[in-house]
Amino acid sequence: MRITRQGVLDTVQDLGRYGYQYLGINCNGAMDKFSMQLANTLLGKDLNSPVFEIHFPASQILFEKETIICITGGDFLPTINDQPIPLDRPIAISKKSILKFEKMQTGSRCYLSIFNEMKLDKWMNSYSTNLKSGTGGFMGRSLLKNDVILFHNGLNISRLLHERDYVVFPWKANDVVDTRNEIEFLIGSEWHWLTRDAQETFQEHWFQITNEADRMGYQLAGPTLECRTNEQLISSAVSFGTVQLLPNGQLIVLMADHQTAGGYPRVAQIISAHLSILGQKKPNDVIKFKMISLEEAERKIVNQKKYLLQLQIACKFKMEEFLHAHL
Amino acid sequence: MNAYQPYSIFPLGDSALTIDFGNIISEDINKKVLQLFHHLKAVANKNIVDLVPAYSSLTVYYDVAFLHHSDKTAFEAITEILEECLSRTLNIPEKQNKYFDIPVCYSKKFGIDLNYLSDQNHLLIEEIIEIHTSKIYKVYMLGFLPGFTYMGEVDQRISIARKPTPVKLLAGAVGIAGRQTGIYPLESPGGWQIIGRTPTKVFRKENKCPVLFYPGDEVKFHSISEDEFENYQAGRT
């Protein structure tokens, strides 16, 4: 596949890079891991296979070979040869197809999974792009015009395509990423540093995502929150979803490209099951925080994982049957 | 009572927890953190996804789906495993920490904040260099960037607050923030006060171990001239 027009920030991501944070090597990985895994799932691929995380304005991609793709997450009105194609379904596309994204309709990033194994860089056990150190994914950077990503294995689906530009497969996902504004959290280790008023404000007010929102974190605008202590925190680990209180009383939520450690008070932590919802938010969107228990948070992420694993197995068999019947 | 007390364990969300030995920078506490870190790393429990040691805390990322059961949360399950480790004095051979002698060019060209530090702390630049190179520093932790070290502690006389706004820095920039000192491994914005630059590459992405310093290592700096810096960079030494 060849990039024929450059997007603003299109990188390769998987579930992230774990095991090296003690060396300051951050995890990276998809911002919306649910949609990222769903794209793989629908093609019957392993959940952790590398995908393209695409922002808007998006890359324009020429597929020099035929393949099967699946697009999930934000709806950027994707087209194949200028004909609209659906999200959340596997789609066989013919060689010389051009994939474009017309408009940012919902969400802030979409995921493109490709049926073929691709020639990408695995660095420290992950394909996720680490932009800071220029490693992983495709040359450690965002895709540029004229980049060519090679496929390891061929796929002959010309009988299935039957001269058509594309064929939509007969299965799809019912559960896709939520667009709710209420984001659930667990209290952070410095939650009690907030005054009682600040704790209430945190849960009752809307917070707006500012323009300072990228893969590293979202700065929020809202009422100033006060601490009951001016104790200083020494650096300690932070993670995807850590909500820190900045010295000016405003909040920042750390996202997929967060640093491994930080020194601001960790007042809250977004539950893992809701990180994908947050990962689809963009500047000016408003969110509200709702406290839940650790038991509930665990149950939600476990259920999400079960759903994806069950769907992955079902789709893997469906894909084998479908390809067998049509090739 | 054993060597690990007192400590507290609190959840960092639903997939990680932090064992905290107190909100202070101390060599003894950091030693405990690293001892526990090396022990858990060696045990290689398959439920542990990642381990992040910091100054005085160890954060454990775990596999919720695997540990979660109807009668017990994953947090409770992993806490039991960890408390078992914490309840006895771990008898592990002290990890062989490495010692590095790192060349730094403390010229004004590279030490962009030398004048500021000199003014603020009423020291001659020669004195700053003398003080910074006189001590062996311990690598307490890494963070911020791949390979970025938090080393300490610098002499009180050259201690200085970080900048209010980060500026763009070159790879190899050597800085001070409070009682900490460190080297920027990559070109990056940074808020530490920069006193020099090392030609030593502390991060090499093509290496199997891309990072030069590990937590627990010891580092001493020595002063080199701009010419020597150029020679190092050109690989002529």
Structure write-up:
With 327 residues, chain A is an alpha+beta fold. Chain A is built from 5 helices and 20 strands. In chain A, the strands form 4 sheets. A 7-stranded mixed beta barrel of chain A has the order 12-19-16-17-14-13-20. In chain A, strands 2-3-10-5-8-11 form a 6-stranded antiparallel sheet. Chain A is elongated, with a radius of gyration of 21 Å. Chain A starts with a strand and ends with a helix. The mean pLDDT of chain A is 96. In chain B, 24% of the residues lie in helices and 27% in strands. In chain B, the strands form 3 sheets. Chain B has a 7-stranded mixed sheet with strand order 5-13-6-7-10-9-12. Chain B has a 4-stranded antiparallel sheet with strand order 1-2-4-3. The model of chain B has no long low-confidence stretch (mean pLDDT 93). Classes of the chains: A alpha+beta (327), B alpha+beta (237).
Key phrases:
heterodimer, A: 327 residues, alpha+beta, Cyclophilin, 5 helices, 28% strand, elongated, B: 237 residues, seven-stranded mixed β-sheet, 6 helices, 13 strands
Q: Layout of SSEs?
A:
The complex is a heterodimer of chains A (327) and B (237).
Chain A: E1 2-5, E2 11-13, H1 33-42, E3 51-54, E4 60-63, E5 67-75, E6 78-80, E7 83-84, E8 90-93, E9 97-101, E10 106-114, H2 158-161, E11 166-168, E12 182-187, H3 196-204, E13 207-213, E14 217-221, E15 236-237, E16 242-245, E17 251-254, E18 261-262, E19 266-270, H4 272-279, E20 286-291, H5 294-326
Parallel strand pairs in A: 12-20
Antiparallel strand pairs in A: 1-4, 2-3, 3-10, 4-9, 5-8, 5-10, 6-7, 6-9, 8-11, 12-19, 13-14, 13-20, 14-17, 15-18, 16-17, 16-19
Chain B: E1 8-11, E2 16-20, H1 27-43, E3 48-53, E4 57-62, H2 64-67, H3 74-86, E5 99-105, H4 114-121, H5 125-132, E6 137-142, E7 149-152, E8 167-169, E9 173-177, E10 180-183, E11 188-190, E12 193-197, E13 218-224, H6 226-233
Parallel strand pairs in B: 5-13
Antiparallel strand pairs in B: 1-2, 2-4, 3-4, 6-7, 6-13, 7-10, 8-11, 9-10, 9-12
